[in-house]
Each structure stands twice: as structure tokens, then as C-alpha cells.
Amino acid sequence: MSWSGCLKVGLRPLAGDRIEYTHVSQPAMPVAVEKACQEGAGQVMSGAAETLARCCKPSTRLVILSGSGMSAESGIPTFRDAQTGLWSRFRPEDLATPEAFARDPERVWRWYEHRRDGVRAARPHAGHRALVDLETRVARLTIVTQNVDGLHQRSGSQRVLELHGNILRSICSVSRKPISETWLSTAEDVPPRSPHTSEGLARPDVVWFGESLPEHAFHEAVGEVNNCDVCIAVGTSALVQPAASLPMIAREAGAFLAEINPVPTPLSNHVDVFLREPAGRALTQLLSIMQAMPG
Ligand code: OAD
Q1: What distance lies between CA 163 and its chain's CA centroid?
Q2: CB 253 within 8 A of CB 96
Q3: Alpha carbons 219 and 195: distance in angstroms, whole number
């Protein structure tokens, strides 16, 4: 499949390249999940976690697709959770598009400064550490993340593909060349001027709506999901394309598909197992089941 023209971030299916901010309602809960919740999610989860653990063998190629729910237990807000999600309090059109930056660069820069402070203060949680340990128990573990906080790398994960960039890095708005912390720390303007071009400004090295994903990272991610045995989507609403398509590509290529999320998503009806739990609890449980399994 050719991905040219499909790399722009948006909520529409792959062919679209425009952003739509219409409300997307939560899908109806799958009957099995609803029943599971009534019966006691923890108990059912451990059955699902055992099934998933049995699929993660020393020869397994595992892909984790993480979203902002993965960082929620580190204190970093998600985007779409009611009340706590960033997009319930701010409009992405005002803060996360190239047009917003062109209109009001100071406002956008200050908002990202605020978010950067939160990311700097955050620490990886037990779920991040469980993924680091999992790396030693399977043949290959690749984390494909939509998160821009770098927490997977800070916790020690080795193979991390960042699809939406990294909020702690800055680039020139014109040349897209990196801008160092040293330059930023001495700058007086908000946002700082770019050292690379006279008309450029510093901007966060993140992908905004309507912009394209880093081509190399996305193509690598497609290669990984096409060749994996197990894919686990963790803490993502599975609404933002093209990242949201990756688990389905894995499934179509024959992988076992799992999801970890306290709330069902559009993906939930398509997965082999759904662990309806926060990432920290689900991943540590998965790890402890794997540790207890006979080698
Ligand atoms: P969303 O905010 O859309 O979804 C977060 C998901 O995490 C929801 O499905 C929650 O139910 C789930 N969640 C919340 N707490 C959790 C926990 N403790 N453990 C596990 N899951 C939990 O965030 P993303 O799917 O990451 O893009 O959003 C994708 C993209 O949309 C982001 O990368 C960002 C955003 O606009 C850009 O900025 C380009």
C-alpha cells in the first residue's frame, strides 16, 4: 500500500487530509466487555492478560502503539477525556495548527512552554518500566508512540518511534532545523527568533493538525506492524489518523491484536483481547504473568 498523501494528521479516515473537529461519540460498549465489567473487570482482565501473556513468547515480535493514556498515570493530561483532556479545555484550532502559530505565535509558544513544564516534572510509571522489562522477554519490541513527552525513552525503552514529534525539542518554523536549548535559554523574544533564518521563529518539534508525520518514522512503523506477531494498543482513543490505522494493519497482516484502555474505543470491537484497565496496572500484570510462566 502506498502511504503518500496519507501522512497528514487528522480525525478522518486515511484518504482525508482535512481536519474535522466534530465530536466523535464513544462507540457502544461490546457486549462481552459490558458483561465483563458487571462480573468484575479485574477478574476478567486477568484472563485476558493471561491470553495475551501466552502470545508473548521469546520468539515474538511485539509492537506497542501508545497514546496519551499511557502517560496519564505520570500526570500528563490526555487530549479527549471528558473534563481532564486538553481538548475539553482548549481548542486545537487555536493552539495545534500551523495557522494558529502564524496568527498568534506568542500564545502558542506559551501554551507549549506550560505543557513542557508538566512533561519535565513527570516521571515514568510502573507501566513504562514493565515495557522496558518486556523488551528482554521477546525477540523484538518496538514502541510506536503518538506521545511527545519522551517518557518511554526516559524509562529506558530502546526502540521508540515518535510519530508526533517531541515537545522538548524545538525547530525553526521556516527551515525546520533543530534549535538548541542553549539558544532558547538566552533568547528574550517570545517565541525566540530562529538562529537559522531571519524570518523564522522557534516552534515545538511536534506534528500539528494538517501537518505530515515524519515520513521515516511512519514508514518504519508500518514495516513493524506488517511484520509483528502481536500488537498492543495502549491508552489511545484510536481516533487520530494515520496512527489509528496501525493496529488494523497489524491485524490484517495476521498479528494478534490487544488493547489496554479503561474505556472502549473504535478499535475494541476488532481486538482479540481487551484489557479494560489503566496502563500501569495492565502492563505490570502482563509482566508478572510472563515472569511466572515456565521458561
Ligand atoms: P486521546 O486523548 O484521544 O485518548 C486517550 C485515551 O487514553 C482514551 O481512550 C482514554 O480512555 C485512555 N486512557 C485514559 N487514561 C488511561 C490510563 N490510565 N491507561 C490507559 N488508557 C487511558 O489521546 P490519543 O489517542 O493519544 O495529536 O490522541 C492521539 C492524538 O490526538 C495525540 O497524539 C494528539 C491529539 O490531538 C496531535 O497533537 C497531533
Answers
A1: 8
A2: no
A3: 31
Give the model confidence (pLDDT) of 167-207 as tens digits: 999 999 999 999 999 999 999 999 999 999 999 999 999 99
Q: Which residue has the cell 502506498?
A: 2
Domains defined for the chain, CATH in brackets: 29-75+124-164+213-295 (3.40.50.1220), 77-121+165-206 (3.30.1600.10)
End-to-end CA distance of the chain: 38
Which of 20, 24, 79, 276 is the best mutation target for the ligand 1 pocket, counting ligand atoms within 8 Å of the beta carbon and taking the most?
79
Q: pTM (2 decimals)? A: 0.89
List 114, 125, 164, 270, catalytic entry: 164
Q: What angle do CA 255, 261, 264 make, to 5 degrees?
A: 90
Q: How many CB atoms within 10 Å of residue 215? A: 11
